[in-house]
Write a structure and sequence with these properties.
By secondary structure, the chain is an alpha+beta fold. It has helices at about 1-10, 15-20, 25-30, 40-55, 65-70, 75-85, 165-175; strands at about 125-135, 135-145, 150-160.
């Protein structure tokens, strides 16, 4: 790695300066181009090809442990190191939206019939529920809008979806209507 760094930047800084800063010898830098590839480097190059094949076959979702099952001759720690060096990280599978397994009661009639005008406050409202994925799991938000004022009059946020979520948003609307 240091030899490659010195070779890459030798036209910018003097080799002696870089060797002093990195703690390597100048003779090693000058002898590097004529050296044959080491047995370990050639073995790791073959191993990286096998690791890459297994990694791509899994659609890039396998980590080092699952790749190690496909390529056991590499050894777990060596596979971990090579995957880290070549930036092969396990990509988590995407989570789907939460399943809606709530039981349905009778569907209410469409009272508004897409007429969103209100003559007085606290008479007509609209409600909506949204689900948000957070680091701790799904979070559900229920919002209630007053059609006369065209603003939020009640809202509720909970970790589970149910009647209490909607009722929590409805309570401020009911108390202001009285």
């Amino acid at each position: 790695m240091t030899f490659a760094l010195v070779a890459k930047h030798r036209h910018i800084w003097p080799v002696s300066w870089m060797c002093d800063a990195l703690g390597v010898s100048q003779s090693g830098i000058h002898a590097r181009p004529g050296r044959a590839i080491s047995a370990r480097a050639s073995c790791e190059a073959k191993l990286v090809v096998e690791i890459d094949k297994s990694y791509k076959a899994s659609d890039r979702t396998c980590g080092a442990r699952r790749v190690w099952r496909d390529v056991p001759e590499g050894g777990l720690h060596r596979i971990e190191r090579l995957m880290r060096r070549d930036t092969m990280r396990a990509r988590p599978k995407r989570r789907g939206k939460p399943q809606d397994d709530a039981e349905r009661s009778v569907i209410a009639d469409k009272i508004l019939d897409r007429d969103f005008k209100a003559d007085r406050p606290n008479q007509t409202g609209l409600a909506g529920v949204a689900c948000i994925l957070t680091a701790e799991g799904w979070l559900y938000v229920s919002v209630l809008l007053d059609l006369f004022f065209r603003r939020v009059v009640g809202w509720s946020m909970q970790a589970n979806r149910g009647a209490s979520l909607v009722m929590g948003a409805l309570i401020p609307f009911e108390t202001s209507a009285r």
